[in-house]
Amino acid sequence: MQPSVPVLIPTEFPNDETVFVTAIHVAAGDLVREGDILLELEFSKAVVEIESPAEGYVRLLCDVNQEVRVGAVVAEVHPTREAALGQAAAPPVQASAPVENEASAPVFSRAAEAELARQGRSPAEFAGRDFVRSADVVGRTAEPVPVAPATARPSRDARPPQGTEPWPMSPSKRIEADFLQAGQNLATSNFKATLPLPAAVLSAPNPKAAFAGLSSAVTPAVLRAVCGLLKKYPLLNALFHGQSILRHASVALGYALDLGKGLSVVNLGDLEGLENKAVTVKIMEAVKKYMGGTLGPADLVGSTFTVTDMSSLGVEYFVPLVGKNQSAILGVCAPDLAAGGLPVSLTFDHRVAEGRVAALFLNDLKSALAKEFSA
Amino acid sequence: MESAILEIVSRVTGTPASEITPASSPDTIPTWDSVNHMQMMLELEQAFAITIPPEMIIELLSVQALFDAVRSLKQG
Asked: Which runs of consecutive H residues, i.e. helices, occur in chain A?
């Protein structure tokens, strides 16, 4: 008997431990070809389509809107339809990449976890399973499931305040909320500085257009200077992990894009030494992929510091939040044309860096841009 | 070809086609910003089945430049 081929949650996104299944494009028992799109997963910063690794018949091991751990098996492709629909799964083929959640650590859906807790049972009962749904838990219950009395009420803490109603949360927003709940951004400080602008922008007939135009030198100059200074100030190119400060071995600038299709932080790499035009080309490539919906894992992973640009939205000042696996983020505000400068906002993780480091970084950034714009 | 390009520029920037000339540019059309520029690039690629190289994208800062680029890429 030919073995089945497992469909795994990719592990390329180091920022994510779990993902949400946002869409399933096939039904159990469907015949698929290698490369056919089986389902969509929402990571914290991207939606990724999962292709079938082989031709065969699909057995689904997940549901839409379920949260699953990266590395988990979410489906199998079987050589026969009967095998795909059968109760006993064929032995999975050994994946070339390591599977983090092996049979000894099954993945439980949220509903299954809740059901387990409600029944007071152990997850160990499901050892050997890849994925456990609430129906699986209910199905293993020897006794009828007691129904909560109609008069049961949620605890005081679980009750929402009067006069409120639920607002839908996207899976990525839920992941972001979970991350923020963990509290990293409670340990941050925020500094404001005003960077110089080129005389060509300030004296233009339409300074705002000159600042934001495709041929503007401002954004490329800021990004290049930041990349250079992160090598001088490595604590702003680091992260707090466990009880330790870890320095990133290289600089990879993340550029936050939100043009109406959700927030994506695109890894532009190390821009130091590039010409302004080359930096603009990199940004345009990223914007084109963002708008075309073709940003992939390689575009989104591994950034070590983020620049988030709110200048086009006219934001006078804001406090950006430090991203996962980073220690600092620079927010770019709308140019203050009356004052002739560009306000920026640096948030940093105080467990990693101190105010002096942030202040020196901002002062050096001002000096670098003043030198470039006066040249 | 030129009328189709004018239609895309008009629709994406929200500018009446009658106000757009080959000399029109981000300097004369205030809504021709970087986001709308990229939207134009994507729509031109789809409409004419071409791929505009990224290094060319930032040079196409007038309607005449769009005419020339599309013509060149269609021939190429």
From this structure: 81-85, 110-119, 134-139, 171-181, 199-202, 207-212, 218-232, 276-292, 297-300, 355-374
Concatenate the DSSP letters of all residues of B1-26 into one string: -HHHHHHHHHHHHT--GGG--TT--T
Convert the pLDDT of each residue in B21-74 to its tens digit.
999 988 888 888 888 888 899 899 989 999 888 888 888 989 999 999 999 998
Side by side, the strands of the sheet bearing A67-69 are: A47-51, A37-42, A18-24, A67-69
Task: Scan for tokens 């431990």, then name that residue.
Answer: A17
Taking CA–CA distances from B61, the nearest residue in chain A reads A214
Interface test with A, best of B13, B40, B52, B58 (most A CBs within 10 A): B58
The 10s digit of each residue's pLDDT in A327-345 is 999 999 999 998 999 999 9
The verdict on ipTM greater than 0.90 is no
A281 interaction partners in chain B (CB closer than 8 Å): 54-55, 57-58
A264 pairs with which residues across the strands? Answer: A257
Q: Which two tokens stand for residue A318?
A: 């804001």
Separation CA A255–CA A258 (nearest Å): 10
pTM of structure? 0.66
